[in-house]
Write a structure and sequence with these properties.
With about 375 residues, this protein is an alpha/beta fold. The chain is about 45% helix and about 15% strand. The chain starts with a helix and ends in a 7-residue tail after the last strand.
Length: about 375
């Protein structure tokens, strides 16, 4: 390990200066202790957020798994004629939303597939009926991939699609579909999906309209450490421009039921290093999310000492990661989340979708 390089990085972090791509790449070197990197990330996180860790009462709603893309990395998508393909009716959507609201959820996370037989109004009307039925629930809906698909279906500019969806209740955008920006890898793992430039363009337009969004990175497949750093730097550049990203969500790849089933997937130490390096590189994105559905509950809890300050939420009825082989539970209760946060030596803070606190240390401990 190059101790001079480490000392320079540590001095930069302590003085609040930005790391370069080369310095980020150094932190991905296996010779550099992941625990040392984690300590730096934790310092940055606590300097920004203290001991507080956020969570939200939310539910996932996946209206269809039928998708024209059929990405090799995706275990969730189906073709229209597959026996386990599904498309929810309006009544089914409303019933699932009702269940979430009765459970105390303040957010619905709505993503699905690019259904070849469903026109844009089907997606728009779904948002509208949920918003009209449950106007106090925040709708975080449609990834950049879906927004670009709607633009293709309608012939409208991305901005017009977003404005139209905002009129019927769209509150923010999730960060899915980013995968990894490096084109040579993206072509192998999701060859029909929008490219990095289009993904970034959708979020740029959303931010210009005042919508906030998340950003993700899928890691642990074919990408290199340099690809990861390139991805983080491009997110950082867009955030410099717009300031619209609320949170970054590292997503661990689950190969089991995908076309890349032969790959080992990331280890727990990989998960912690990605979290820590992301916190150090993304100095302008406020929140780092330990998405327990993807990481597993134990690793997500540990990540709270490696730069994460958000445990996501209750996440009811998640399908996408579970289809790929996630062994995490389908949901956690508020009491369970608060207990996990307290066990990590942190203070639980219930939030809304825009990170406005709803409750803090007085939340139930389980």
């Amino acid at each position: 390990m190059d101790w001079r390089q480490w000392d320079r990085i540590q001095e930069k972090i302590e003085s609040g200066r930005r790391l370069s791509a080369e310095e980020g790449l150094f932190l991905f070197d296996p010779a550099v202790s992941v625990h040392r990197v984690g300590q730096l990330a934790d310092r940055v996180c606590q300097r920004r957020h203290g001991r507080g860790v956020y969570y939200v009462q939310n539910a996932h709603l996946n209206p269809t798994n039928v998708c024209v893309l059929r990405c090799p990395i995706c275990a969730y998508s189906r073709s229209a004629g597959d026996p386990d393909a599904f498309t929810m009716s309006e009544q089914e959507v409303l019933a699932q939303a009702q269940e979430a609201v009765e459970a105390g959820c303040t957010e619905l996370h709505i993503v699905g597939g690019l259904h070849p037989e469903k026109p844009y109004p089907w997606y728009r009307d779904l948002l509208q009926v949920v918003h009209e039925s449950f106007p106090r629930v925040h709708l975080k809906a449609w990834t950049a991939v879906e927004i670009a698909w709607f633009a293709e279906l309608t012939g409208w500019p991305i901005r017009a699609v977003l404005e139209d969806l905002m009129e019927v209740g769209l509150g923010s955008l999730p960060g899915g579909g980013a995968e990894i920006f490096a084109p040579q890898v993206r072509q192998q793992i999701s060859p029909k999906k929008i490219d990095a430039e289009t993904w970034l363009a959708v979020h740029r337009e959303a931010h210009r309209l005042g919508l906030r969004s998340n950003a993700t990175m899928l890691y642990g497949h074919l990408e290199t450490a340099a690809d990861r750093i390139d991805h983080l730097v491009r997110l950082r550049q867009l955030q410099d421009e717009t300031g619209g990203f609320l949170a970054f969500v590292p997503l661990a790849f689950h190969p089991g039921k995908t076309q890349f089933f032969h790959l080992p997937g990331p280890t727990g130490l990989d998960d912690l290093r990605v979290m820590a390096v992301s916190r150090l590189m993304l100095d302008n994105i406020p929140h780092m999310k330990a998405y327990w559905i993807s990481l597993g509950v134990g690793t997500a809890q540990t990540a709270l000492a490696y730069g994460a300050n958000d445990m996501e939420g209750t996440v009811r009825q998640e399908r996408i990661h579970h289809e790929a082989g996630s062994s995490a539970p389908q949901a956690l209760s508020v009491e369970e989340i608060c207990l996990l946060i307290r066990q990590a030596g942190r203070l639980p803070i219930q939030r809304d979708s825009l990170y406005r606190p709803i409750a803090s240390a007085g939340a139930p401990s389980g």
